[in-house]
Amino acid sequence: MAYNLLKGKKGIVFGALNEQSIAWKVAQRSVAEGAAIVLTNAPIALRMGELNKLAEECNAPVISADVTSNDEVKNLFTKTLEHFNGGVDFILHAPAMSINVRKGLHYTKNNYEFTHKGLDISALSLHRVLQTAMELDAINEWGSVAALTYIAAQRIFPDYNDMGDNKAMLESIARNWGYHYGVKKHVRVNTISQSPTRTTAGSGVKGFDGFINYAEKMSPLGNATSDQCADYAVTLFSDLTRMVTMQNLFHDGGFSFTGVTQAVIEQMEK
Ligand SMILES: NC(=O)c1ccc[n+]([C@@H]2O[C@H](COP(=O)([O-])OP(=O)(O)OC[C@H]3O[C@@H](n4cnc5c(N)ncnc54)[C@H](O)[C@@H]3O)[C@@H](O)[C@H]2O)c1
Q1: What is the mean pLDDT of residues 26-49?
Q2: What's the gap in Å between 94 CA and the centre of ligand 1?
Q3: Distances 87 to 82, 116, 142 between C-alpha atoms, Å
Q4: DSSP run (H or E) holding 93
Q5: What is the DSSP letter of 205?
Q6: Key word Lipid metabolism present in the record (predicted)?
Q7: Which entry of 112, 160, 179, 181 is annotated as an active-site residue?
Q8: Which domains does the chain have, with CATH numbers?
């Protein structure tokens, strides 16, 4: 069901790779709520070709940008400003990657080249995006920025590896920009801490099946799906949440505040 919550709004959606991507659902849901969007991803992701399907469905241009490149991020905003003939009202930040995770390097044996790269893609990119946006005055008054994160920023999930550090920094960068962009232009910046979700990035984490099932059992409402995450993101982009900023917002079916559930106790007693 659509409510026209984003009627007349314009946005940029980062990180839609394929139909499983959380950003893919956010793009679809934003357009269903009346928004016009620009889609962006790294050049290598565009070469996979899947994004064209979404672009057609959403009637959205695709502008490639590797989020680790100042020039490419600047080019993205310049072209977006031209396309919309003005600034945007919302941004979804969803790029993330850990090469240490990909290569299966244990947290105690990380390769720091990989660590730097992962930090740049997964956390500093939010800083780069917002710094560039501010320089080009690319976000409208009362705009909204949401970045996707995971509870491994606060608690240890051993196989989440250096992504836990990346997410902790991402959340801190969101808070800092929430202050600076709020003061300057009433732009709000939040992070959505989503349940484990079966996507390309999610499934790359060792033991993913185990911890998605554990999270399901540890959440009174069960795990939140990517479609439900998109619903939540749309509310944050809408005018109904104008005073919510600098928050890490758990979208996890109650996982974050549950000590233990009956289902887990029963499992442990077996
Ligand atoms: N899947 C989960 O369990 C889960 C849970 C909580 C939070 N998240 C977060 O949600 C976000 C989206 O991830 P997803 O699970 O939908 O997986 P995904 O693999 O579909 O999305 C990750 C995206 O990052 C993009 N990316 C990687 N390097 C990039 C670069 N250099 N420049 C630009 N883009 C780049 C990829 O192309 C891809 O589109 C991530 O921040 C992820 O950490 C995921």
Answers
A1: 96
A2: 5
A3: 9, 31, 12
A4: strand 88-93
A5: S
A6: yes
A7: 160
A8: 10-269 (3.40.50.720)
- Backbone angles phi and psi of 14, in degrees to 5: -90, 150
For range 43-62, the mean pLDDT: 95
Q: Residue 141 — pLDDT band, cuts 50, 70, 90?
A: very high
Which residue among 13, 150, 228 has the greatest number of ligand 1 atoms within 8 angstroms of its CB, and so is best to mutate?
150
Q: Is 156 annotated as a binding residue?
A: no
Residue nearest to atom 10 of ligand 1 (CA): 148
The confidence score (pLDDT) of residue 180 equals 98
What element of type H or E holds 98?
Answer: none
Q: How far is the CA of 263 from the centre of ligand 1 (A)?
A: 30
Query: 3-state secondary structure string, 59-91?
Result: CCCECCCCCCCHHHHHHHHHHHHHHHCCCEEEE
Indicate if the pLDDT at residue 164 is higher than 90. Answer: yes
Nearest ligand 1 atom to alpha carbon 150: 6
| 160 catalytically annotated | yes
Exactly one of 3, 107, 112, 150 is catalytic; name it. 150
For residue 233, give both structure tokens. 């993101």
Answer yes or no: is 67 a known binding residue: yes
Question: Rounded distance, CA 148 to CA 248, Å?
Answer: 10
User: What local confidence, expressed as pLDDT, does residue 204 receive?
Assistant: 81
The whole-number pLDDT of residue 208 equals: 86
117, burial (CB in 10 Å: exposed 0-12, middle 13-18, buried 19+): middle
Confirm whether residue 167 is marked as ligand binding. Answer: yes
150 is an active site residue: yes
CB-based contact 77:133 (threshold 8 Å): yes
